Amino acid sequence: MNKGIVFNLNFEEWRQIRKNLDQTLMSYRFQKENIVMIQKLFGEMTEYWRDLGENAPVDLSIWINRLFSDYIFLTATGMSCHFLTQEFNNQCSGAQKLSVQQEAIEFSTSITKQSQTHREAIQFFILAPEFVWRFALRGITNKYLENRVKFYQQLDSIIEKRLEQIANGNILKYDALDLMIQTEIDHQNTLGTESKLPNRSINVANIREALVTVINGSIETVPMRITSFTAMNNRSNTHADKIGNLVWKSGTQFIINSAAICHDPKLWHDPEKFNPERFLLNPSAKDTFFVFGLGPRTCPGKHIAIANIKVLVALLYRKYSLELLDKDLPIKQKFVLINNCKGAKVILQKI
């Protein structure tokens, strides 16, 4: 788990991967292309809704997940997985079904399953004591470790294939993978390596760890950023700290109860109530509302996620009025390590 940027305690390695991610995600061209991509995918989704019937119930939790899954893989790797098309085919009759290449279906099925299992593994290793995963549940541990190998091999093959294409004269694009490759090349050149693809000095592992962060940290979390998407955050101090009369030795693990802080009645009036105006009435509330984390390890995709959510909400409400199919039915949420919405059926009426 001491890899990537989420749990990495190797500061120098973490800093380089984080720098690569920041340079990629904060570039103007990348952010501009992302907004265009969201608009394009929203247009595709609304065409499917039209073909399914104007007043047919729509489960937004499913469709928004499919939209962002398509979006993440397109912007991360430049590859299309056709999740929206597959969802349309699942809901329509035989005559309406659209053709999707079997290779794309197999790729999207395998990599999403691997990504989901990888996220489950993170929950397992965080919540289960070491004795449990090392001895008592060794079979589950082996399953998660084997999945990680397959997941990493799949991502490595994507990266190696792209490196080969670039070496053969294929022009660099503006998806995250190509920009991370360019950032890694620039980094190696500053070290005097003179990287020219396909040079062995290109650190595929660094690119892969950044790609894992982009994929795992986005597919099911972007739509849920209206609230704390994790129940807790963990941090570790690199040096001994003294707080009050207590001394915490180096390497102490701290657990931050994000869910409790974001629902604390001492900090929030009616914390269970959906009230966006609370931020206008209490500007200082932003210091206790940290859905993207705080400090140097804050989510690197924070600004892109905020922009995407704003664009999607604007596109949705500009075109439709929404009404819950059953106003008395509470929205189902699954909250273990990641907060997920499971079921949000609405009736869409064109404006």
TrEMBL record:
Listed cofactors: heme
Stretches assigned to coiled coil: none
Pfam families (alphabetical): p450
UniProt binding sites for heme: C299
Transmembrane segments: none
Entries under PROSITE patterns matching the protein: CYTOCHROME_P450 (PS00086)
Assigned keywords, A-Z: Heme, Iron, Metal-binding, Monooxygenase, Oxidoreductase
A GO molecular-function descriptor: monooxygenase activity
Record family assignment: Belongs to the cytochrome P450 family.
Record protein name field: 3088_t:CDS:1
Organism: Ambispora gerdemannii
